[in-house]
Amino acid sequence: MNRTLYRTRIKFCGMTRAGDIRLAGELGVDAIGFVFAHGSPRRVAPAEARAMRQATAPMVDVVALFRNNSKDEVREVVRTVRPSLLQFHGEEEDSFCRSFSLPYMKAIPMGGAQPHNARALQMAFPNAAAFLFDSHAPGGSGGSGSTFNWAQIPTGLHRPFLLAGGITPENAFDAVVATLPWGVDVSSGIESEPGIKDGEKMRRFVEEVRRADCHEMS
């Protein structure tokens, strides 16, 4: 299959500096993410995210990431930051996720022993705009820098999915070619330290994903 006309979406997550957000826009990244999950080294306050949002290029989505945050906390972020998409990494149910009148993406932990079933996921989260498959174990957090067995991604999904977990400039090409995701989500793989993005890694990551998009499958 020739994938020349297929473009994998790219999301840079865990942004903490306006300069990194500007560079992401210049590189053609599709979305940037702010982390509001408690305990994350990349967590920012809603007011900080609102200020950094001004650096976002036109037509770049702003995603707000949560993990078991309260409804009031999510509402404050929605009101203050005005994200275009919500991302939930905890034990949130569909009714909670959809209660904020914004599209949402549900992260699915792939670090457990039990495989996931596409039908069960779609029944549990019928209103999810997309799923994100990450390498953390159930109850854990993302941003681990570790990969999971990509063959475990459930087949038969009727929603777009994003691949996350341990993707770097070194393995981004293989990840995209192997899984054909709607998009890829990267945080630690483009950092010099948690929350501090590395410009050269950001550039190389985008280049490798685009190289995979032009790869002809045999």
Automatic annotation (TrEMBL):
SUPFAM superfamilies: Ribulose-phoshate binding barrel. It comes from the Bacteria. It catalyses: N-(5-phospho-beta-D-ribosyl)anthranilate = 1-(2-carboxyphenylamino)-1-deoxy-D-ribulose 5-phosphate. Gene3D superfamilies: Aldolase class I. HAMAP family: PRAI (MF_00135). InterPro entries: Aldolase_TIM, PRAI_dom, RibuloseP-bd_barrel, TrpF_fam. GO terms for biological process: L-tryptophan biosynthetic process. It holds the Pfam family PRAI. The keyword Nucleus does not apply. Its EC number is 5.3.1.24. This is N-(5'-phosphoribosyl)anthranilate isomerase. Pathway: Amino-acid biosynthesis; L-tryptophan biosynthesis; L-tryptophan from chorismate: step 3/5. Residues 11-207 form the N-(5'phosphoribosyl) anthranilate isomerase (PRAI) domain. Belongs to the TrpF family. CDD domains: PRAI. It is an enzyme of class 5 (isomerase). It comes from Stenotrophomonas panacihumi. Keywords: Amino-acid biosynthesis, Aromatic amino acid biosynthesis, Isomerase, Tryptophan biosynthesis. GO terms for molecular function: phosphoribosylanthranilate isomerase activity. The lineage of its organism: Bacteria, Pseudomonadati, Pseudomonadota, Gammaproteobacteria, Lysobacterales.
